[in-house]
């Protein structure tokens, strides 16, 4: 077949939450589209959380690639069905379909499992020339001529991240330079949190871009946009010396930018790194505290304790860096008191922003396998697998109680006191976030009966 035009679609989120006002696209579609553009194809990327796709372009493409996580899978499948009905081949990729490839093949022509850079380019070549044959493309799932699903062996992980191009956001439909820019400088994670699929997607070993390549990309995106740069690595400070070199490079090359990233609590043990991060423009650190319940931290296999959490908050704040704390509520070791104490803890320790997330068993994680085996899932309406809805039966409270108490905890944190405090200190971003949070929570509570229908016992 002839392939000249390729559309990439990142399926939209099913509903709003407190941070949906600030959508951050995943990098996969942008990176893959850049690689195909560089090979001569006409390519555009449509991110539904950013703007409505240009369906005329999509429906006149020779190939459509759809990226999805679990919570967007229902929407992604609907798009795939619409496109395939027009006779256009559809390729699906992303964490959800990596682990549920046969489900995805009910809607897609092909599924790329895991890292897509190698398999997708080989697939496009195969569709055009017949080489390589489909059976030779590692990481690819498809149906044979008899309609049976075929899952080729997994593809290996890309070891040289410097070999990848810098993602070109000009390919994204209606992208505005004022938006926060995501930047990836590493892949993988050696930790084993039960609810996380990073290891299954990207491996247990960290792989890094060189400091030189990282600084080159940061310089480039800073020239394109003065908006905040978000380094999406699962742990930017996994290699402390490398993180320091990047910060020193930003300072030495006078790359003046505001940036944020994700780290673990152990970043606070290195005060020199914290100072370098602050001096080089780090605005906010996103930290998975996960819980203040010691038993829950052990159950999550988090390898940190409450003292570590408190110490990290103190030291990070001492360096003038803001903190976004993420807590996961609803483990078998949690009860209602745990949820309420978590909200009090976040307020008492002056965490700048929080997400109180509901424990969610995503396909591909040890938690999902455990809950399937123990028949704890309430349903598999994937649109509710967004960490804001209860989809399983907790051990110490009802699903309804966990749902309601989690939203009450959010309301307790994003209070009028929170809003007025930030207005008084001229932190308008946080004040606006508090207002948006209150509006979102009020909307949920207003529609409480409808939202909780799936969680009520069936008679």
Automatic annotation (TrEMBL):
Q: Kindly give the SUPFAM superfamilies that the UniProt entry links to this protein.
A: Cobalamin (vitamin B12)-binding domain, Radical SAM enzymes
List the GO biological process terms.
methylation
List the residue ranges forming a coiled coil, or say none. Answer: none
Positions of transmembrane segments: none
Q: Which part of the chain is the B12-binding domain?
A: 5-134
Which InterPro entries is this protein grouped with? BchE-like, Cobalamin-bd, Cobalamin-bd_sf, Elp3/MiaA/NifB-like_rSAM, Methyltransferase_Class_B, rSAM, rSAM_horseshoe, rSAM_sf
Mind naming one GO cellular-component term on file for this protein? cytosol
Q: Is Metal-binding set as a keyword in this record?
A: yes
Keyword presence, Methyltransferase: yes
Alphabetized PROSITE patterns for the sequence: B12_BINDING, RADICAL_SAM
Under what name is this protein listed? BchE/P-methylase family protein
